[in-house]
Amino acid sequence: MKVKSRKMLYALLLIGCTLSGVLLWLSVRSVEIVAVHEDREFTSVLVRNFPFTDRGKINWWLKNKDILKAKYNIPKPANDGFFSIVFWDFGDGYKEEGKYDRRCFNDMKPPKNCIEKNRVFSVSDSKNMGLSFTTHDEIYRMRKNGKIVKDGAD
């Protein structure tokens, strides 16, 4: 029994180390911005390797918002201060419109000017709602004091 237990322990340790290594690798990959498409105060940013967790996405935005402004001049708020930036997973690249419900960009010529609609994160700001972050299934808002809270969690 001792030999079996020891082999099982080694197997579990190996699996645990492998999973930890993969998770570490996934968490330290740098985000690749493939393209930026703009339509007034609405911006679509096509990305690869975006963080998985809600916290990772928000932290990435907070860390990189000044770089996005300097390099891509986004966001470009409307006169009332409103803007919206949607980060889309670039996935397999540009595709033809063909399939139902693809996100197509008017600033590119067809036929390959669309992507699959796989929104990974969005940031918006408005007078009424303030700065908000939307992930797959949650909305977070930045309070005036800088604290970020999940919508509805007061």
How would you sum up this structure, described in words?
The mean pLDDT is 88. A hairpin with a 2-residue loop joins strand 1 (32-39) and strand 2 (42-48). This protein is α+β, with helices and mostly antiparallel strands and 154 residues long. Helices cover 30% and strands 32% of the residues. The radius of gyration is 20 Å and the shape is extended. The strands form two sheets. A seven-stranded mixed sheet has the order 1-2-3-7-8-9-10, with helices on one face. A three-stranded antiparallel sheet has the order 4-6-5, with no helix packed on it. It has helices at 2-28, 54-72; strands at 32-39, 42-48, 83-89, 95-96, 103-104, 112-115, 119-126, 130-134, 139-142, 148-150. It folds into two domains: 1-29; 31-150, no CATH class. The chain has two helices and ten strands.
Explain briefly what this protein structure is.
With 154 residues, the chain is an alpha+beta fold. The chain has helices at residues 2-28, 54-72, and strands at 32-39, 42-48, 83-89, 95-96, 103-104, 112-115, 119-126, 130-134, 139-142, 148-150. The chain is 30% helix and 32% strand.
